[in-house]
């Protein structure tokens, strides 16, 4: 068994040569592994972790070392203040796309707008629009069955599925 602090330092050293974001990546992966936030890590740095958690964390570090995006490892990404599930097979929602969604929301002056999202992926764009424009209806398409499944799951989780 090792302490939270010791295993976090291990993760930072492990990732240092593979990513410039090694400090944040190591911390976020540890938070995900133990299901706690950074405040918990800081306040409980001497807490000992069970070997199975340490093994899980090391597995996450190995995946990150190979270049797998952090969001795929932890399984989610924030977009427009909403938490989206992401998996390989869908693009990770990006913060620069939030600007597009904000512009659409600002420009929307039609009552009950009907929107079309082609290549929906995780559903981030249409789900965010439906969340912020309550009277909007959205039609989404994607050639990937996996993407459609993830978009449906996100729509249900974020309460815009009908």
Question: What descriptive keywords fit this protein?
Answer:
single chain, 8 helices, two-stranded antiparallel sheet, alpha+beta, 14% strand, 53% helix, 162 residues
Distance between the termini: 48 Å
Give the number of helices: 8
How would you state the average pLDDT, rounded?
94
Radius of gyration in whole Å, from Cα?
19 Å
- The helicity comes to 40-55%
Which band does the percent of strand residues land in? 5-15%
- What gross morphology would you assign? elongated
Could you state the order of secondary-structure elements as H and E? EHHHEHHEEHEHEH
User: How are the strands ordered across the major sheet?
Assistant: 1-2
Strand tally: 6
Written overview of the protein:
By secondary structure, the protein is an alpha+beta fold. Helices cover 53% and strands 14% of the residues. It contains 8 helices and 6 strands, in the order E-H-H-H-E-H-H-E-E-H-E-H-E-H. The strands form 3 sheets. Strands 1-2 form a two-stranded antiparallel sheet. The termini are far apart.
């Amino acid at each position: 068994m090792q302490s939270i602090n010791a295993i976090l330092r291990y993760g930072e050293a492990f990732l240092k040569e593979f990513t410039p974001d090694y400090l944040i990546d190591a911390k976020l992966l540890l938070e995900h592994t133990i299901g706690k936030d950074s405040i918990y890590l800081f306040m409980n740095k001497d807490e000992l972790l069970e070997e199975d958690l340490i093994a899980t964390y090391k597995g996450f570090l190995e995946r990150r070392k190979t270049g797998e995006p952090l969001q795929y490892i932890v399984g989610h990404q924030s977009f427009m203040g909403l938490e989206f599930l992401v998996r390989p097979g869908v693009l990770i929602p990006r913060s620069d796309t939030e600007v597009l969604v904000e512009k659409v929301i600002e420009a929307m002056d039609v009552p009950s707008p009907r929107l079309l999202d082609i290549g929906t992926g995780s559903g981030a764009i249409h789900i965010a629009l439906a969340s912020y424009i309550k009277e909007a209806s959205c039609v989404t398409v994607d050639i990937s069955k996996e993407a459609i499944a993830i978009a449906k799951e996100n729509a249900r989780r974020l309460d815009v599925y009908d």
